[in-house]
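Query structure, 350 tokens:
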């Protein structure tokens, strides 16, 4: 039987897609965020275009920010949320979807919007921690009992293992997944690229469903009951285990990656909408103690070290994590792995 949480997830997925559709088509909906105030009641409106698994986080954060902003300014504010695969969301903004701020899965997706002229250069230094108010990592979500004994990345290459994993062409989380697995294999084979590619080919041969986004992959694994293992954002895995403690468990691989979702003001849109200062305050407040607590409660790792450590019972803080810098940064990683004709295409279309 579907839980209320999972029903909500499905409903919000549909709603998020609707918002993107309305804004991309230039619809006149009051939810489009195309004006900084609601003509009916004078309420300020800001649109946050985000990636798949942040729905619940921003639902909670938006309420906290609304109260904070009301106390500070006396003004009411409403936030429109839009969610989907991070790469798809970035492209939707480039193509005209309204966004005053973007809170996406990786810096590269925001760079695409910058390159389209919508975000000013230097955005990554506008907010602390390289404009990453929270981090995450990649884990395995398995069914209770872990019948196939999946403990590390090499177990995912075995015959008969069915993997659910999103598509790196549309999902930022999927890019983090790929790089974490690549790092493990590179260490196993002392950087021998041919052997690493063979390993990755075996792993992706076992992917039975490749959804466009991380939340869709979670729904496929949890709601539709497909696959033996979901390669997942840590927060998605935590939320699932909290909802279904008797049905699922989390496996932390020996090597994973420090995933750093990024945030930025969409300068051109915010200037047009008259929301620049509001957008700045909205993203600044993510670093407040109140917001950092909300972040931890929603399964993301707070950037505030003290608050992060207070959640040591929730996160495996002893995991060995590589970083995007180990791959030369996102531009180099995309050139090597994810652009058309690069390594991902090579191994997936073999």
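Result returned for the query:
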């Amino acid at each position: 039987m579907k839980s209320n949480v999972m029903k909500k997830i499905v409903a919000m997925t549909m709603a998020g897609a609707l918002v993107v559709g309305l804004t991309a088509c230039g619809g006149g909906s009051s939810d489009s965020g195309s004006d900084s105030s609601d003509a009916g009641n004078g309420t300020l409106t800001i649109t946050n275009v985000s990636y798949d698994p942040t729905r619940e986080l921003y639902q909670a954060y938006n309420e906290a920010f609304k109260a904070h902003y009301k106390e500070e300014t006396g003004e009411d504010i409403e936030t429109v949320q839009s969610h989907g695969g991070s790469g798809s969301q970035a492209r939707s903004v480039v193509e005209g979807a309204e966004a005053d701020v973007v809170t996406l899965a990786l810096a590269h997706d925001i760079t695409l919007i910058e390159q389209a002229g919508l975000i000013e250069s230097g955005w990554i230094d506008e907010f602390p921690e390289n404009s990453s108010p929270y981090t995450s990592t990649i884990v395995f979500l398995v069914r209770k009992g872990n019948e196939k004994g999946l403990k590390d990345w090499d177990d995912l290459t075995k015959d008969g293992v069915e993997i659910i994993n999103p598509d790196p062409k549309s999902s930022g989380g999927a890019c983090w997944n790929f790089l974490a697995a690549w790092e493990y294999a590179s260490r196993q084979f002392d950087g021998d690229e041919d052997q690493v590619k063979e390993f990755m080919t075996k792993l992706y041969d076992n992917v039975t469903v490749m959804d466009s986004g991380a939340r869709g992959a979670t729904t496929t694994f949890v709601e539709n009951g497909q696959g033996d293992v979901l390669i997942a954002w840590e927060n998605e895995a935590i939320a699932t285990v909290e909802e279904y403690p008797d049905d699922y468990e989390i496996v932390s691989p020996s090597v994973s990656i420090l995933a750093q979702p990024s945030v930025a003001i969409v300068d051109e849109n915010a200037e047009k909408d008259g929301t620049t200062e509001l957008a700045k305050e909205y993203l600044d407040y993510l670093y407040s103690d109140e917001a950092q607590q909300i972040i931890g409660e929603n399964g993301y790792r707070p950037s505030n070290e003290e608050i992060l450590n207070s959640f040591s019972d929730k996160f495996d803080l002893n995991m060995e994590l590589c970083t995007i810098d180990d791959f030369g940064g996102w531009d180099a990683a995309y050139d090597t792995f994810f652009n058309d004709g690069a390594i991902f295409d090579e191994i997936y279309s073999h």
